[in-house]
Amino acid sequence: MFENERYVTQGVTAEIPAYLQNLLWYLIETMEVKEKDYLQVFTLTSVWEDGELKQCIIHSQERPAYRKEYRIRANLPMAAKIFVIDDGDHTTMLLAEEY
After folding, report:
1. Number of neighbouring beta carbons within 10 Å of residue 40
2. Partner of 42 for a Cys bridge, out of 19, 82, 86, 90, CB 3.0 to 4.6 A?
């Protein structure tokens, strides 16, 4: 799973910086699970930590259950929900509202 052609929707291209898109792909590639669900979910929020605003990324899947949280420095943290779906032929990254 997640080893075929990758696509991003117009919404992701317009709203999510390229560095963040690449990071989300990387987080899927390096997941520490035996099996990856066809649907990966990323919830992006901003959080104050150590006196600075950071990007919070919560990466989850339903089956098998997986949840990991990351906090990174970002000039402009954003709020968004992103789905990455592998349908067997290709993998698409899209904003939740585009689903």
Report:
1. 25
2. 82
